[in-house]
Amino acid sequence: MEERKLAFQHYRNDDYLNAIFYFSKILKSSSKASIAWEARGDCYRLLKRPAEAIPDLTKALSLNPKSAFALFARGEAYRQLGEYEKSIADLERYLELTPDNKLEPRDCLVIGFVYAELGRFPEGIGFFEKEIARYPNCAEAWVSLGRALFRSRDDFQRVMFCLETSVKLDDNDPKAWVYLAHAYYVAGEYEKAILAGTKAIKLDAKRYAAWMYRGQARLMLGNNPEQAIEDLVTAVRVAIEYGSEYVWQAWKVLGVARRTVGDPKTALDNLTVSIALNSNDDDAWVQRGIVHYQLGVGYYRDAVSDLKYALALNPYNQFAGAWLSSVERLVEAAVLESASLPPHAPSKTAEKLPSAPPAEVIFEPPPAYNPAWAKSYAESHSVAANKGFFAKVRNLFSGDSSGSRLPPPQSPRSGV
């Protein structure tokens, strides 16, 4: 009895490591104690050790299949692992066993988040709204609702209202300010996007997206492109330093920005890194195809190759299709001028293509990166082979970024 008392005392006091110690002693002498399995599993979950939590909670459910507590805890553990289908299966069973008036605070938030990650936005939005109805001053519920509405392409006025309400309730949440900067940028409210990005950076300078959206907004205003590029370079550096899974996205946005300010050769390098990190992003292939076009007639065939690959990844990319048709016409015209294209010669073709819009920025997790394919492509690509650029990319993958075009680290800037 003393061990049980100590175990739950540590559990209630958030001293989960000592609680695990005593629950383990209880289970050695009584392996059928379902509540001990539940509690120890929940301790592992709260310590962000879901792989250890799930076996304990599964054992508890084998002893007591109708334990709502164990179902919710295991659903949360699966969520921590990113196994959303298994998570929602447990959470839906939890809802069947739990009346609305017995739901705990944040239950609806967790369930809504899992639905949103599965792309089931109507259900996710419904749970966020239910949480707000119960706790209208919950800033996290407002920001979660705003993000779900944004991702479901809902009415933008609702998106802005939710995110602005969130920061009014809690103006110290950097995540909310990053989302708001993104929303302002997409809405074309660039001054507001800069202010929101600056606030996020002041709260947490380790969020690469805050630097990225602020840089993009500054670029769109056009009054200080050097400062915009500085923000986007910082976004890449921060994403690399803190191990973001979206490093590829930061490189892509930087490449597009450098193309926009008239530096296509550096843009080509940046976009090549982005593609090497995530070869399944059709937008990066389109953007690099445009850069190849801008480099002149000697690069037109490279542009065609990139644009065709973008269409192979996404046959519905109309922008890639339009560019491909135009560039192929230019290649045909150049071939008529000469029996073969000279290697990277100055362009003799004067036809002008329409300017490209900024790259779309997304929050969804990137597709799987195929390093073998990326290496093969980079080593066989003429620009990479001639300039030894893949050596720089390979150094970047191994943690040595000295071969990249990033300047030495500087103190983060937070001023507008």
Structural notes for this entry:
- Among the domains are: 2-98, Serine Threonine Protein Phosphatase 5, Tetratricopeptide repeat (Alpha Horseshoe), CATH 1.25.40; 282-365, no CATH class.
- The longest helix has 20 residues, at 318-337.
- Helix 2 packs antiparallel against helix 3 (34-46), helix 11 packs antiparallel against helix 12 and helix 15 packs antiparallel against helix 16.
- With 416 residues, it is mainly α.
- It is built from 22 helices and no strands.
Topology readout:
Elements: H1 2-12, H2 16-29, H3 34-46, H4 50-63, H5 68-81, H6 84-97, H7 107-117, H8 121-134, H9 139-151, H10 156-169, H11 174-186, H12 190-203, H13 208-221, H14 225-241, H15 247-260, H16 264-277, H17 282-294, H18 300-313, H19 318-337, H20 371-380, H21 382-387, H22 389-397
The share of residues in helices is 55-70%
**What is the CATH superfamily classification of the domain at 2-98?**
Tetratricopeptide repeat domain
Write the CATH fold name of the domain at 2-98.
Serine Threonine Protein Phosphatase 5, Tetratricopeptide repeat
CATH class of the domain at 2-98: Mainly Alpha
